[in-house]
Amino acid sequence: MKKTKNILLPDLGEGIESATISEIPISKGQKINKDDTIVVLESDKASMEIPSDIEGVVKSINIKNGQEIKSGDLLITLETTKTTDKNIKQTPTQKEQTRPKKTEQKETIVKTRTKTELNNVGIYASPGVRRLARELEINLDMISGSGDKGRITKTDLHGYIKAKMYAHNTSPLHFGEEIDFSQWGKIDVKKLTKIKTITGQRLSRAWKTIPHVTQFIESDVTELEVLRKKDKTKQTNSGVKITMMPYLMKATVSALKEHPVFNSSIQNNGTNIVFKKYYHIGVAVDTKHGLVVPVIRDVDKKNIVELSKELMDVSERARNKKLNPNELKGGTFTISNLGGIGGSFFTPIINPPEVAILGISRIKTENSNEQQLTLPLSLSYDHRVVDGAAGATFMVFLSNILNNPQNLN
């Protein structure tokens, strides 16, 4: 017997709230297999393919090219003979064939099951969690379970509710009244790219909700530059580009291990602080579409050459919008490098849920005779978690590592 399965758009990753449909490579009546691509999306940060999680025949396509969609939106409906997949709508007759009808009232209740209940079929959760989800009309398929075998716990549900309440209560950005600038002269109006629009909203929210403090220091990197040039020469024939960034990442991780509060996040409305035992560094990449922050995982376990290769790869794919959504989330600390552009110090804005971000400016020559090289560093941190003394201590520690770079490989 054929069953109906709704395929919804999954979570697209941290910071990606919506995406635009660029291609629908299927048609109504077509048979598709599990993992076949059903839609190609273009988000503000990446281009991605969404696969089917089950085989079947396309009964309906509920989207169109150019449409903007968000997590949880219905993509397509399949007809399938599978009976074990979650989200398969189970009709009242399926449940009632195994037992006789008792009353007309019972039959009416079954027939009026909500859309939320149908969506929650096949999900691991306790009766209490399911009951609360039904009452609040929450689709449990939108929640990641932290329990055994992915079971959704009461804590998971409460966290989801709090996140939704926060998002609802966060006031939208308010701009000044619209001004007709053309009354004073010739103008050219261009629409902001999607990534710049969304990034602007996120940064504005971060600036308004996080008490920023920025600490500055200048570090002598003369020896570090000598080391970098030696390593670069060793890789002449390999095609690996050795820049200053991998050394900065390794030095930062050393500082994070010594000062773990900078590798943490605030949780539970500010009552808990989560100290992370892993070191995933976000690296801000400037593209023609706007700023993208791919995450390099386990920096403490990789050497300079490995990090250089990975940086070359993610930077190229970031510029071409080819990053996987998973590569844009999970960061514990971010580095924003403006050294290739110029300038001295600046105030980088924290990337939530992180509590700090390091800004790198252009190396300058302090003494023309000795060729002493100085690197300006700017550290912004969340003053709710980090006090001024800790910020200064972190920067001095980091600067000392860069002064003595022998152990950074």
What's the gist of this structure?
Helix content is 29%, strand content 23%.
Verbal overview:
The protein has 409 residues and is an alpha+beta fold. The chain folds into two domains: 3-169, Beta Barrel (OB fold (Dihydrolipoamide Acetyltransferase, E2P)); 212-407, Chloramphenicol acetyltransferase-like domain (Chloramphenicol Acetyltransferase, 2-Layer Sandwich), CATH 3.30.559. Helix content is 29%, strand content 23%. It has ten helices and 19 strands. The strands form five sheets. Strands 9, 12, 15, 16, 17, 18 and 19 form a seven-stranded mixed sheet that branches. Strands 1-8-6-3 form a four-stranded antiparallel sheet, with no helix packed on it. A hairpin with a 3-residue loop joins strand 4 (37-43) and strand 5. Helix 8 (245-258) packs across helix 10 (388-403). It is globular, with a radius of gyration of 26 Å. It starts with a strand and ends in a 6-residue tail after the last helix. Mean pLDDT is 81; it is low at 84-121 and 167-173.
